Amino acid sequence: MSQASSSPQTESTPQSTGDWLIERIRLYNQVDAEEVTLDAPLTELGLDSIYVMTLCGDIEDTYGLSIDPTFFAEFETLGQVATALDERIASA
Amino acid sequence: MIEAATDPEGGTRDGCALIGSVEVFWRFGHAPSPSTTRADVSRTAHRWLARLVADRDVFAWRGLERSGPWSKPQPVGAPDADVSISHTGPVILVAACRGARVGADIEPATSTAFDSASLTRRMCTPHEEEVAATLQGDARRRYLATVWTAKEAVVKAQGAGPGRPGPRRDFRTMVLDLPDPTALFSAAAAPAAGPAHPAAAAEPPFEAHLAILDENAQPLLHRLTF
C-alpha cells in the first residue's frame, strides 16, 4: 500500500481535502474506484475498522492532525467528512 | 477450544471455545456466492448468528437491537447474553455466549493493509512495533493481523468500535497477553529479519480472535485460525 503523501503545498479547501480523501480511499482498493465519491455514504466505501484507523494515520501524516476513529461516526457522507476535516485543518 | 465441527450450513465450521469459565460458541465460513455487497454479507452473518444461537441453545433468540446506528447489536430480551459479528470480504465469523461480553474479529492473515506504516504506528505498542520490525513479508503481516484481531476483539467486547462513540481504547497503549511471533508459525524456525519466512505461505489464510471480559472487565483472549 502506498504511504500517505506529504503535506499539500497549497492551502486546503473542502474540495482539495475531498479530492485527497477520495485518492486515499481509492488506494485502499476496497470498493470500485467509481464508487468513491463525495456523495457516497461512508458505510458504502469499504471503510472497516482497519481502514478507518489507516485513514486516521494518513491524515496525521499528511495534515499533522490527530484524528480519532470516532470522528467519522458523526458524518453520513464523504463530502461531510471533507468539510469537517477542512475546518479542522484551517483551525489547526 | 473444546470442540469444532464442520458444516451445519453449507461450508461453515462451528466451534466452542472455553475462555476462562465461559463457553463461547462460534461459526465461521464464506457467505454464499450471491452475497456480493457488504450488506448482503452482513445479512448472511446475522442469519448464521441466529442459527448458531438456536442450534447450540445459547439463549432464546428474539433478534438483535441497537441503541443507535453505531452501537453494538444486543440480543433482545437476553441481558446476560452477548454476540459479536465480524466479516472481511465474504468471510464471516460470528460468536455468542452467556455470562460475559464477547467480541470477535477476523482478518486475512496476509492482508496488504498491514503494509501501511501509518496503520502500524496507530495499532501497535512500542514493543509490538519492535517485534514487527524484525519480520518481513507475510510473516510480518500475520503477526500484525494477530495483534489487530486481538485488540479489535477486545474493543468489540467492550462495546466500542471504530465509528462508535465510547470508551474505545487506544491501540497504542493496549497491552495484551499475545503469543510470541514464533508461536504463530507451525514450522519450528522463528521468523527473523531477512526474506519472508518460508513457513508463512503454508499457514492458514485467516487470523481471528475471540475476547471476553472477565468479572473485573479484564480481557481474556482465544486465538483462532482458519
TrEMBL record, chain A:
Q: Where is the Carrier domain?
A: 15-89
| SUPFAM superfamilies for the chain | ACP-like (SSF47336)
PROSITE patterns according to UniProt: CARRIER
Q: Report keywords, A-Z.
A: Phosphopantetheine, Phosphoprotein
Q: Which InterPro entries match?
A: ACP-like_sf, PKS_PP-bd, PP-bd_ACP
A Pfam family (short name) is: PP-binding
Q: What is this protein called?
A: Acyl carrier protein
User: What organism is this sequence from?
Assistant: Herbiconiux daphne
* Lineage of the organism: Bacteria, Bacillati, Actinomycetota, Actinomycetes, Micrococcales
UniProtKB/TrEMBL annotation, chain B:
Identification of the protein by name: 4'-phosphopantetheinyl transferase superfamily protein
One matching Pfam family is: ACPS
The UniProt entry's coiled-coil ranges are none
GO molecular function list: transferase activity
Q: Does the keyword Hydrolase apply?
A: no
Q: Which family does it belong to?
A: Belongs to the P-Pant transferase superfamily. Gsp/Sfp/HetI/AcpT family.
Identify the residues that the record assigns to the 4'-phosphopantetheinyl transferase domain, covering every copy: 101-178
Q: Which PANTHER family match?
A: 4'-PHOSPHOPANTETHEINYL TRANSFERASE SUPERFAMILY-RELATED, PHOSPHOPANTETHEINE TRANSFERASE
